Amino acid sequence: MAWSPLKNPYDLFALTHKIHTITECMDVRSEPGDYIFKKFPKRSASSRMSYVNLDQEAMEQIEEDPMTVCGLYIIGEPDTIVEVTIKQYNVNCESGGLMAFVDGWELNGEYFPSEVDHHRKLEDRVVEFCSDYRQWPKVSNKKFFKSSQNAALLQYRIPTKGFFIANVKFHKISQPCNVLVQDTDGIFQLNNYGHPWNCTIAAIFPAVVSLSSLKIGSKALRNEKVNYDCQMEDRLDIGGSGGLENSNMDKSSSVCGYSDAPGPQQALFCGTTSVRLVSSGKYSNQATVEIRKASVEDYDLATLICPV
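Structure (tokenized):
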């Protein structure tokens, strides 16, 4: 059968996703597609031609200490999870090279979601790997990972030379729990879906928080006023911390009760602003939370200022 004169046969092999080049040691991305990183020894620039089929921009080196750990920080919409497939990699174990997939984000030894918010143990959320040539070609070079929330991290340490190609996809989920905020404002839903788990929205900036609706605790609280100093097992904790770790955050308020009326605004001037829904599993708790980035004009609304 002959090709149609109206169709280029090479269109069958056209890329259906974007190709991105990693040029920063800390690179935050929210687009799907292939992410490429390459590193060459400065003294052997001619060897760059040995890696074919990679974007020319990927030839650029990231200036850094040889043992620096870099990261591709991936973040999606609140109702998504992240899928990462390592399509190819050449990261030599013997030279100190190492890669790791993190279910969540890590920064300065701190993690989101924190251990109190995640259903997996921290040691199970971090998977390390590198190219062990003693096993080649007995093991597959391809790696496949999925996150539990809208944030994931691909860390890498390549002392001398190496490369990797990672494909990133985002998948919609029906019951999002932990959410890392990528925009400076938005309205978010927190829901435990009747389960005994914690769910946290974290914004990595000082923020103004207000509650649009609330349904937390037993139905006996339905006719009571909303309690912003709640000591119940089921509650909504609003607070902040200096870094990603928010398990011991400073609290601005702890809220429970029922309401469909907008609540007061609370400005939290911290490195990370967190709203955590704590649930025993006895009730179906839910809250609608509005978050926007705080400015100096919001100091009059301040309910918490974290130490610098």
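The radius of gyration is 23 Å. The chain is about 0% helix and 45% strand.
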